[in-house]
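Predict structure. Chain length: 294.
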Amino acid sequence: MKAVLLGVLLAAWPLTGTADPPRTVVIGGDVAEITAALGAAERLVGRDDTSTYPERLEALPSVGYLRRLAAEGVLSLRPAHLLVARAAGPREVLAQLEASGVAISRIDAPPRLEAIPAKVGQVAAALGDDPAIMDRGSALAEALQAEIAELAALPPLPPLRALFLLGHGGMTPRVAGRDTAAQAMMDAVGVTNAFAEMSGYKPVGAEALIRQAPEVVIATRGGLEGLGGESALWRLPGLAMTPAGQARRLVVFDDQALLGFGPRTPATLLALYEALEHQAMASDIPGSAGSLAP
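Prediction complete.
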């Protein structure tokens, strides 16, 4: 009798960790990277177009671009939980999804280097009360904080005027001004933005490029591919007449790693610092400059 009673009690008692995690759709490449780094990628049933790293996430169905979500596309995956980055929207669509019964965790971290460790903590907490995930989150945040401290302790770069070029297939290339993720990236490594006088990402003409005289171009791999490759970059009107164009000074990094402010960003910025330091030193040596693509 006691054995039967014990069996009934055990059957009714909730066992920690036995419940399946909620079906989760992740919106935002930085949030997706953190989720995977915390060992929770297996609970994802969908993603947005920016969530492509690590590579295995690309096998998940996409619900579209994070800023242009449609409720129907998201609901077609029958999610119980949405894990969304700050930039996700439109707000009306997120409100519609929440009203339909989908739980939404908003990771509201600004696109700044120093905010990345706290963003990791937010994602870990949003993934539920799992001690293993929380432990991984604490360890990852600590490692990222150490990389950020290492970057902050680096000596100032030699004076160097940089241009960040944003390019995608089918659109006019745009240059980064202030109030952009690219400006935050340049501030983090201590390089001067040649176009800091303007705000946002804007197309610029040949006269502006020549006048601002950037000494190095920073680009992303995806952006460079969208332009048609490095040879097409140097054919942009006016760029060949800048110090950067004359010496073919170019550094290229992965799009999400450089500008996503996710787990790979601090290490990528350390590599960018080294690349820019090399370019600054090479700028005084005729014929020694060239492109670097870490």
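Summary: The chain has a mean pLDDT of 88.
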